[in-house]
Fold this sequence. Notes:
Elements: H1 2-7, H2 10-56, H3 64-88, H4 93-109, H5 115-133, H6 140-166, H7 171-192, H8 199-224, H9 229-236, H10 239-251, H11 257-281
Helix pairs in contact: 2-3, 2-7, 2-8, 2-10, 3-6, 3-7, 4-5, 4-6, 4-10, 4-11, 5-11, 9-11, 10-11
Amino acid sequence: MTRSLRRAPAPGLVLGGMLGLQGGAALAVRLFPLVGPAGVVALRLTVAAVVLGAFWRPGRRPAPRTLRTVLAAGTLLAVHHLCYYQAIGRIPLGAATTIEFLGPFAVSLAGSRRASDLAWSLLAAAGVLALGEGGSPLGAAGTAFAATAGACWAGYILVSARMAGQAEDGGGLALAVGWGALLSLPYGIARAGGRLLEPRTLLFAAAVALLSSVLPYSVNLEALRRIPPRVFGVLTSLEPAVGALTGLLLLGQRLSLPQYAGVAAVAAASVGATRAAARRGQGVS
Length: 285
């Protein structure tokens, strides 16, 4: 597997990670009738925690400051996953992913006063408005869950950046995912009970965890070794479009033309903002 990752082109790895993430979300929707969103979150985080723990094998207890960061990251992960799965259970996958993506987009623009960044923000806002107005209207609950997931994801980006500076390897990530699993298990058990242990459920949940967590973490890490972060940021900006395409192909979720235009607008705004930030970082005016 390691040799295959090293031979694959870096952009293909990033695209593969996005396809895995969105494919896992589509598979999770199929699992909702069996255990509901809470059950899926509990199983996904538990399986991911076991796999990451076995791989990274976190050793000694982290320092108090690092432990607080790990607990914060795990809490944000658990809340994000639950809200995101609640969202895709109510509104199309592409729409939910696009709204959620506004969280990372806001982080990339935080503190900027440039007119160009304001233009990208307005384009993204227009895209979200098109999602809500075109075709079948999105439900308020699904939209709210997707927006909350985006806020949690933005917080996780900030916290995980701090965690990366405090932990030497992926042990912090393994501990954070383990804490998220511990938080989500009681609620998942309360909602799904013994159905969580049915063989069919466990098989689907393992697939969701591998596609949505283990695969993206692995391929993105390898991609970041070979391409600059600015290129990585531009490529991952295509995730709303990948989510819309995945929802169409795997779940038969059709958006209207204005809604597809809204997805494209958010993706374009993210690409533009990422490229502008990269140019500023290189001293290009």
